[in-house]
From TrEMBL:
<dbReference type="Pfam" id="PF06850">
    <property type="entry name" value="PHB_depo_C"/>
</dbReference>
<protein>
    <submittedName>
        <fullName>Polyhydroxyalkanoate depolymerase</fullName>
    </submittedName>
</protein>
<dbReference type="InterPro" id="IPR029058">
    <property type="entry name" value="AB_hydrolase_fold"/>
</dbReference>
<dbReference type="InterPro" id="IPR009656">
    <property type="entry name" value="PHB_depo_C"/>
</dbReference>
<dbReference type="InterPro" id="IPR010915">
    <property type="entry name" value="PHB_depoly_PhaZ"/>
</dbReference>
<dbReference type="InterPro" id="IPR051321">
    <property type="entry name" value="PHA/PHB_synthase"/>
</dbReference>
<feature type="domain" description="PHB de-polymerase C-terminal">
    <location>
        <begin position="202"/>
        <end position="401"/>
    </location>
</feature>
Amino acid sequence: MLYQAYQFQDDLIAPLRDLARRLQIFSATALWGSGSEMGRHFAAALEMISRFEITHQRPDFAITSVMIGNRVVPVTVETVLDMPFGTLLRFATDTDAKRPRVLVVAPLSGHFATLLRGTVQTLLRDHDVYITDWANARDVPLSAGRFGMDDYVDYIMHFLEEIGPGAHILAVCQPCVQALAAVAVMSEERHPATPRTMTLMAGPIDPRESPTKVNELAVSKSLAWFENSLITGVPWRYRGAGRRVYPGFLQLVAFMSMNMERHQDAHRKLYDHLAKGETAEAGKIKKFYDEYFAVLDLTEEFYIETIERVFQKAELATGDLTHHGRKVDPGQIRNTALLTVEGGRDDICALGQTSAAHDLCRSLRPHLKRHHLQANVGHYGVFSGRRWEGEIYPVVRNMILAME
């Protein structure tokens, strides 16, 4: 009933949003004029109401070009492999130069892969970039079957196979565990598509290190509590009707509650910018929240297994992680260079959680391991923004280049 209650509330508010959008058009030609102080405040209030919405559709990547060398090169998003729960996308560039191929593994944690738009945009300067575009579980019919942690690892391996030998893998946040597991399995099998480098950025390899609020919540409740309180069925109006999911809107609420004052302050600033006609400043805030309020649902099995296996039992760190019943041994990784990246102010995946991968990959020689600690950045600053572009990305690029 949880999803149905949310949908009922959203349906009730929808006419109000629609009315606000219509009135925005009217306010531009109203007697008081949109240029007056009253008109600007009225228009700002209408826009705030019209934006009171969570969307469940993936935004566009909106990457149409990239600067390569000294010229602007067009970018086209191509579908390389389409599977029920995820699609492998390639950002094709109009260049003849052979460039390192990088698979970016996006998190499946309530937001779409477009959250890594800035990561991809930067990587495109020097690389042939692919990304995992995970599906919204509410749009996947029951006939497609289940999708759990083992299936996630399978998808990563399928995508690497499709890209071919000699590629590189870069995982951001939650999928660092699955990416490491995939590389370990492929290394043990001596799979020809085993990546040359593995970059793990702000991921919970060992969540027992410096536990954050996220980690503490995951271990403070029983699995039964998560199943009974957070899992619900998809309403019948959607393709995935009847599928049990962890709704993206709940994850959004959880994320926002960690920094509620910051989000409230951002929306106050948005209103002020709109009322003052400061469109550029308002545009920056709107752009962020357009992405932030676009959410997807996770399958029940993936969410519950992540809580249990990644956070409560820390199976990868303790050596108990299995893939389809077979033990996952990071010690099998011998030829894939490892780079871990952490943010000094990360309140989601704290210091030590990602760098724990170095101890697990015990067979790697020292020159194939590197850790980068970026001071004064939070979780999102590890893979987006000024510090990512100017200080973290060069480290990532050099690691990849060294193994080409």
